[in-house]
Fold this protein.
Amino acid sequence: MAMAIQQSQPVAPLPLVLGVVRKLNVAALIDTLCPPHPAHILSCGRGVEALLLAILAGHHALYKVGARLEERGMLPLLQEGLGRVSLNDDRLGQSLDTLFGAHLNRVLGAIALNALDVYAIATPWLHQETTTITLYGAYEEEVRPVAGLVPPRPAYGPSKDGRDDLKQVLLSLGGSSEGLPLRLGVRAGHTSDSTETPVALEEWLALGLDGVRGIVADSKAYCKRTLGVCLERRMGLITLVPRTCAVRQE
């Protein structure tokens, strides 16, 4: 018997990805850092799950997330009784604002450390890298807070994409040998790579990972302060000695 199919939508990897996210307990970890409001049907953690699936499904404008996931039959898997109206752009935008307010480096660290435990990933060598994020528009000087975390200051600095005419911030990312991101830092735009590496190393050690032997970084890691921290903490350092150093010439 012939059957007529009116419309079909590819599900692709969405259920598989959702299964991995659930195994890592991502939503619960996020909701611990961003406690749900009793008036909200959708928690911040569930909102992140929805946004992740929408990104993998293609175009993911916030106002289309509910419709896109409903087309693929994903709403019942996300949350029992969840309707597309609960995945509106206002609620998802609130979730993103709440997530940002909880400090993304804390959220990333909590999820990454849980992933290490769930999948029993060893971290003998930690990899450190920096890049610059170019900003457009006017960024006026703001009053700096007297207490609490100080946000990074957009500033001119050596740009990795050659746009020295634009202000920027420095993104510092560290991960395992397998490519799992473990820590994230955002610094003022004029921050030097050579001063960032020892700071990143101290943040690595604060994670309390077992079996860490050392850090891998590019030639900007070769400086007295980094070498001093490595000697003090008995950590190894794998890096490329800069061309300007006599030891490399020899």
Notes: The chain is about 40% helix and 15% strand. The radius of gyration is 22 Å. The chain has a mean pLDDT of 85. The chain has two domains: 14-101, 122-136+151-249.
